[in-house]
Amino acid sequence: MTKISTATRAAIKQEFPNLTRDVKKFPVREGEEPWTVREAEELAALLVEDKERLERELESADRELSDLLRNSGDGAGDDQADYGSSALEREQELTLVNNMRDLLDQTNHALDRIRKGTYATCELTNLPIGKARLQAFPRATLSVEAKAREERRGA
């Protein structure tokens, strides 16, 4: 994990006032060390930073998509190739915006779980998600086993 500044640490303590208490309840898998306040602060800081970045990128992508949609009917003399290219560009931009929105939703959900003291607990099984999994993917809401089960059902 990365080291966070004193100012960031203070902001995390302000945004998550119960983190020092709640981190003691964050479950771990067998063989893992208990969560430390520093580890939880680092993940929270990473998620807050991601949230702010995603909000900026989403705002910019929304503007670009609006411009594309607004200008899509401008070329009365466009041929089919131009029209197809414009449609593809709009579709790609829409997919990008939707993916960013999903990621922002996942980030907000992870931050809410930290606030509520339910972070690190699998939403399906109530078992530990695993510290290593959360350090690799802080937005995870399911343990590896629950995620594999979910994917098998969806496949």
Rg calc:
20 Å
Helix content: 55-70%
- Topology pattern, helix = H, strand = E: HHHHHH
Helices and strands: which structural class? Answer: mainly alpha
Number of strands: 0
Q: What's the rounded overall pLDDT mean? A: 88
**Uncertain stretches:** none
- Give the count of helical stretches: 6
Cα-to-Cα separation, first versus last residue = 34 Å
Which tags fit this structure?
155 residues; mainly alpha; 6 helices
Question: What does this entry look like structurally?
Answer:
With 155 residues, this protein is mainly α. It is 66% helix and 0% strand. The chain contains six helices and no strands. The protein is flat, with a radius of gyration of 20 Å. It starts with 5 loop residues before the first helix and ends with a helix. InterPro entries: DnaK_N, Znf_DskA_TraR, Znf_DskA_TraR_CS.
Short description:
The chain contains six helices and no strands. By secondary structure, it is mainly α.
Helix-strand layout with pairing:
Blueprint: H1 6-15, H2 19-22, H3 37-70, H4 80-116, H5 131-136, H6 144-154
Helix pairs in contact: 1-3, 3-4
